[in-house]
Design goal:
The protein has about 150 residues and is mostly helical. The protein has a single domain (about 1-140), classed as Alpha-Beta Plaits. It is about 40% helix and about 10% strand. The protein is built from five helices and two strands. Strands 1-2 form a two-stranded antiparallel sheet. A hairpin with a 4-residue loop joins strand 1 (about 1-10) and strand 2. The two termini are about 25 Å apart.
């Protein structure tokens, strides 16, 4: 996965990403991302015996599996998502400029780069970031048309 931008909010995630190789297209990339992160999150929650929100998170994940009819014990992600294939620089810029202000609109921070769970910190040049992203100054270099 190539990660160009992201914002992790309390109830949803925005990500601008691409695949290193065209394995199964966008749906395959999202499927694999959800599978990997679900396993990691469930493992983390179950291993944190002293985490005060542990029981609450387990209950939420179990309820999600029950409501969806999922055969697994836990469900982290919703089954649907809203993938959009970005083929033009204008559309890329629009999406990129949409995701970073999310924490500002939610009243969490005053400026996008103050929110640590966002690639806005990477693009602001901060040294401490929770995820590394591929910084793109010229969107045309990633193969967009237009």
């Amino acid at each position: 996965m190539l990660l160009y931008g992201y914002v992790i909010m309390c109830n949803h995630v925005h990500a601008i990403m691409g695949a290193k190789e065209d394995t199964n297209g966008l749906s395959g990339l999202i499927r694999d991302y959800k599978r990997f992160t679900s396993k990691q999150l469930i493992h983390w929650v179950l291993s944190k015996k002293k985490e005060r929100r542990r029981d609450w998170m387990i209950a939420i994940f179990r309820h999600g599996a029950f409501e969806s009819g999922n055969l697994d014990l836990f469900q982290i992600w919703m089954h649907h998502n809203c993938p959009m294939v970005i083929t033009q620089n204008k559309f890329f810029n629009q999406k990129f400029n949409y995701i970073h202000p999310n924490p500002v609109k939610a009243g969490i921070v005053r400026n996008p780069e103050e929110y640590i769970y966002s690639s806005a910190t990477n693009y602001a040049g901060f040294d401490e970031n929770i995820l590394n992203v591929i910084i793109i100054d010229d969107w045309s270099v990633i193969g967009l048309v237009g």
